[in-house]
Amino acid sequence: MEYTKSLYPIVKKEVLGKNIISMNILCPDIADAAEPGQFLHILPDGMTLRRPISICDINKENGNLRIVFEVKHEGTERIAAKNVGENLDVLGPLGHGFTLMPNAENVILIGGGIGNPPMLTLAKYYGNKATVISGFRSAECVILQDEFNRSGAKSVLCTDNGTAGRKALVTEPLKELIANENVDAIYACGPTPMLKFISAIANNAYIFCEVSLEERMGCGIGACLVCACKLKKEGKDVMGHVCKDGPVFSSKEVQW
Amino acid sequence: MANLSVNVAGVDFKNPVIPASGVFGYGREYEKLFPLSKLGGIATKGTTITERMGNPSPRIAECPSGMINSVGLQNPGIDAFINRELPNLLTKDTVIISNIAGSTIDECVSIAEMLDDTDVHMIELNISCPNVKKGGAAFGVHCESAEAITKAVRKATKKPLIVKLSPNVTDITEIARAVESAGANSVSLINTLLGMRIDINTGRPILKNNVGGMSGPAVFPIAVRMVWQVANAVSIPVIGIGGIDSGKAAIEMMMAGAKAVQVGAAIFTDPYAPVRIIDEMNDWLEEKGISDINEIIGSVNPW
Fold it and tell me: What CATH number labels A107-214?
């Protein structure tokens, strides 16, 4: 199976912070096929368009996938209104995920705000070979720190206003780590300006780097060409699509 | 099992349900969910002579009971379609309708000539795309230009020719009659209605193109009305498009006079929508004891 669409029950729901919802979905066939960096396309009740939500954690043994998302508008509001025992209409797993490097010794995972959840699958994969740099606006926005710590990864917490962890942008600890250590790979998800800066830093230092992008989507499987993003491939400008070519792209190919 | 087969402009369809141009690409992504042979036909992504990059993102936004899009005819060009996609599609045991969307008459003629040498089953001429600056809807909103482009493409190909009409006109029946007189074998309608959404927090339109084509269940009553008007105004077959998301909606569209239907936005909501609609149509016909779908085409009994 590559992807499928069906109704799957919510088996756990938590409110992690202001407007941040965590849900575990029992979907053994999707969980079995899912890879870090992929996403689910979830239909809010009564709406026309699905909402792409990245996968935060994959548990193939118990057939669970976890999603953590921010309630932004009516679509995510309707998904967030669902409770344990109710079904979600899910199409997935979709997209091209992160490139996993089994021999890597030192990787950096960077999450900005609601870009943190997809980093958890990578933190669990790399364990103590990873350093997670998470950035948030302020202390009340901080999520997933316990999970990152339990994964065995080293963790650096930053906030814009210094109310939790370091008062710094995620790029500051990133630059320090690169200056002092041999880094095999950088993975990042978060706001576009953050990804742009991280890509520039990684590209200048010749470090393998992948970034996960977000865009408004239609079909989610690569047919409708709605979620376009400009890429450079083999010296040529091309329109890629976040749902199928991404959401994870090489930092070298994205045209910001 | 009721008979669902219909004939449109001399082409036999095993059922009247066709994914609309644009939402379905060339079928490759949906083939992973269901066999394409279940479909009556496939209208492929609008093709231009050379590759088009399309409009910048965002290209889509939700609307009450629908959506607006402004993809801007991104496609790999006619050579890529004929060499890379069409041979595969022609093995799928379903009617292949190639949608062409050039920005000039000459471009549409060239594409039609190239398609004439292939085994594609039908051509759908898009004179109604609202998302491009040149061509597109510009041809479809005046009788003279609609007639001129239809006439030119008609000369370029012997394939059955469908002309896809814009609803963004004062009287769609006039345009339908113009393309009928120019040699169209069928008309398909409606393309999207021009719409706009604004993010009130930023004061910016959601679509980077500012405006886009609106579709989905919200436009269904408009589409039914226009299909009914056009079916009563021309003698060529009408293909109904616009907000069909269920077997009952497809039946309603056919009662208004459509010989076949195309399904667009509903595929985003439910990727299985085309095959579900076929099953639901059959269920409805069986429940009513109607053995042949053709009995309901144009069967509305107006007051």
Answer: 3.40.50.80
Is there a contact between B128 and B136 (Cβ–Cβ < 8 Å)? Answer: yes
SS3 content of chain A, % helix, strand, coil (to 5): 25, 40, 40
pLDDT tens series, chain A, 256 aa: 799 999 999 999 999 988 999 999 999 999 999 999 999 999 999 999 999 999 999 999 999 999 999 999 999 999 999 999 999 999 999 999 999 999 999 999 999 999 999 999 999 999 999 999 999 999 999 999 999 999 999 999 999 999 999 999 999 999 999 999 999 999 999 999 999 999 999 999 999 999 999 999 999 999 999 999 999 988 889 999 999 999 999 999 999 9
Are A216 and B216 within 8 A, CB to CB?
A: no
Binary contact (A48, B67; C-beta < 8 A): yes
CATH class of B6-54+73-195+215-296: alpha beta
Give ipTM to 2 decimals: 0.93
CATH architecture assignment, domain A4-94: Beta Barrel (2.40)
Nearest chain B residue (CA) to A244? B29
The minimum CA-CA distance between A209 and chain B, rounded to whole Å, is 24
DSSP A134-200: EEESSGGG--SHHHHHHTT-EEEEEESSSSSSEES-THHHHHHHHHHS---EEEEES-HHHHHHHHH
A236 touches chain B (CB under 8 A): no
